[in-house]
Design goal:
CATH class: Alpha Beta
Shape: elongated
Number of domains: 1
Strand content: 15-25%
CATH superfamily: Fe-S cluster assembly (FSCA)
């Protein structure tokens, strides 16, 4: 499996994680800033890093959402580890949402 194929698998899993307070997955909501996957030269298994944010730094569900993202490594074959880099700069805004998410929330 290529690094790009692993990234696609991780993104697919991210689209299955929903913010409990908003009925949109975290990927379409625009909470995911970057997904980087590479092959570990020692184990030949994949490692990924997800750079993400939350709708608010005081989000009550932050720990739950981040733990769900981390748990992707247990659900994807050949993925040895997935690290989460939680950032708040740049801050999240509605402009980061996909058109599909905006439509679902009645913003289009």
């Amino acid at each position: 499996m290529t690094d790009e194929q692993m990234k696609e698998k991780v993104v697919e899993q991210l689209k299955n994680i929903y913010d409990p307070e908003i009925p949109v997955n975290i990927y379409d909501l625009g909470l995911i800033y970057d997904v980087d996957c590479w092959t570990d030269t020692t184990t030949e298994l994949k490692k990924c890093k997800v750079k993400m944010t939350l709708t608010s730094a005081t989000c009550s569900m932050s720990e739950t959402i981040v733990n769900l993202v981390r748990s992707i490594s247990y659900r994807v074959d050949e993925l040895e580890a997935l690290n989460v880099d939680l950032v708040f700069d740049p801050p999240w805004g509605q402009e980061k949402m996909s058109d599909e998410a905006k439509l679902q929330l009645g913003l289009l």
